[in-house]
Amino acid sequence: MAAAAYNFSVEKGTTFQKQITWKDTVGNPVNLAGYTVTVSLRAHAGGDVLLSLTDTNGGIIKNNPQGQMTLYMTPTVTAAFTERKYYYTLDISNGTDITRIMKGKIAVVIG
Q1: d(CA 109, CA 61)
Q2: Which of 15, 16, 63, 99 could form a disulfide bond with 68, CB atoms 3.0-4.6 angstroms apart?
């Protein structure tokens, strides 16, 4: 399955939260127990990772049975960004396989 493309914006210096639900091919939520979730931010597609949000570093909060994950960045994290577009990927791993479920651009804007 191809990764869904989704673009969104982040206001510099504010708390950012975005909830995403991973569903199977028939629309049922996928239980995230046993999966690692990682969002990687880059200056350009395929570039070096500038920021990694994971379910182990507090950047992603999981609700396992509901297949929900919330991307979370503190005001300190978003304040460190420059005003521009960044590229991100959202990957889920079961320890063996990695599935890219989402990718796109994040525009950092000044409020």
Answers
A1: 24
A2: 63
pLDDT digits (tens, 9 = 90+) for 12-45: 999 999 999 999 999 999 999 999 999 999 999 9
- Write out pLDDT tens, residues 61-108: 999 999 999 999 999 999 999 999 999 999 999 999 999 999 999 999
Q: How far apart are CA 98 and CA 50, in angstroms?
A: 20
CATH code (residue 29) = 2.60.40.10
> Which domain does 65 fall in, by range?
4-109
Beta bridge partners of 10: 108
pTM of the model: 0.91
